[in-house]
């Protein structure tokens, strides 16, 4: 895997491989009226990555970068794979890498570009950065949508790195919505129980491997820095700003340092915010970062991954690397045989598994195993199993299998499982009562094993025939 030094290195490498047109540079877009909408429209078409500059009210060079892993090709480049790697092979590569990954600790350095500008005292002002209002109904401007939140356990010294949404609440105030079952919240509560504020740092703008490691979360006790180092094949360069015990990436674009007091001491109304479900759900009094210092590079870049409708290719990742690869591993560990592929749709609200059946119970085994991987508080809603002739990365192919191989009276099972607080289907009464139970659906879209060899033949050209056609008509037919 390519060891990108920073976000700029990734952008340079991406344009070198995919062409200058892969990044569309837009000057003059308003941070409230334009940036979020343009990002969404381009993501819907799997368009280029977007670099917004000369934003009204801000100096030229104070930029916002979005859709940074919004296509399979950009995801492949981010992982150091050939740009034309097929989608399912990207998942396979990630799955294989995750099995053999050896954590690599970060490398301490004494200086780095993030120290080019250091703001303290009265100079601390989050308003110097063009944090966008990503959706019309957002309750504020969110500078952190693909950020890294760094904390250190006061007992073990374990450095945790996670991703939480961060909203500018004033020149020296930043709000964070930190779910109660996440590592950073548990660390912060240790400080609060001792009557102390939790030291914290928020990183805005880093390379895609750091972003991915922060979002998927390492096991408790392992730092995401070590995980990112293992993924990159070399340690992440970190430094300790003067007086701080929190390591930050030496090549980060922006670092916001401060302390997180107990919500009983200080909190702020956070939200609403257009979440990845496509709805506004959570809003309430949440934790506040009291900002004491800001570090930033010259011409800093805000890395943005605003949530959009789950049916839109994700602005930060067009391939469901984590959900698909972890589910695939879980299936194999559960004894499911002949798994051909795993794919996630609508930010894994629907997980699709392809198998080669060898027995009558294979499809249900795969469904139960896939559902068993579902995380507490996850929102995976539909689990589908299909035969090996179905391309799980093609939603039209998956729907064809569901529409023609499912008998609703026999092929569907409904179970109950916990969901998350942002689930828009939770009724107000259940939400108030803390009842997070929600139904999940298991769908067997395979040919019935007992007579699968007698199932009507499909009239679709097979893949070898398609390849021959593409070769003969190169330049006319899509690859």
Short description:
By secondary structure, this protein is an alpha+beta fold. It contains twelve helices and 22 strands. Strand 18 (339-345) and strand 19 (350-355) form a beta hairpin.
Helical proportion? 25-40%
The CA-CA distance between the termini, in Å, is 25 Å
- Rg, rounded, reads 23 Å
Q: Count of helical segments?
A: 12
Tally of extended strands?
22
Categorize the overall geometry: globular
Could you tell me the strand content as a percent range? Answer: 15-25%
Give the rounded overall mean pLDDT: 88
Q: Flag low-confidence runs.
A: none
What's the story with the biggest beta sheet? 10 strands, antiparallel
Structural category: alpha+beta
Protein model, in words:
Helix content is 26%, strand content 24%. It has twelve helices and 22 strands. β12 and β13 form a beta hairpin. The chain is globular, with a radius of gyration of 23 Å. The mean pLDDT is 88.
Which features does this protein show?
single chain, globular, five-stranded mixed β-sheet
Topology:
Layout: H1 7-18, E1 23-27, H2 35-44, E2 49-53, E3 63-66, H3 72-78, H4 87-100, E4 107-108, E5 117-120, E6 142-144, E7 148-152, E8 159-162, E9 166-170, E10 173-176, H5 183-193, E11 198-204, H6 208-216, H7 224-232, E12 237-239, E13 248-249, E14 254-260, E15 268-270, E16 284-296, E17 301-303, H8 321-333, E18 339-345, E19 350-355, H9 362-372, E20 382-387, H10 395-405, E21 412-418, H11 428-433, E22 437-444, H12 463-472
Parallel strand pairs: 1-2, 3-17, 4-12, 19-20, 20-22
Antiparallel strand pairs: 2-3, 5-16, 6-9, 7-8, 7-11, 9-10, 10-16, 11-14, 12-13, 14-16, 15-16, 18-19, 21-22
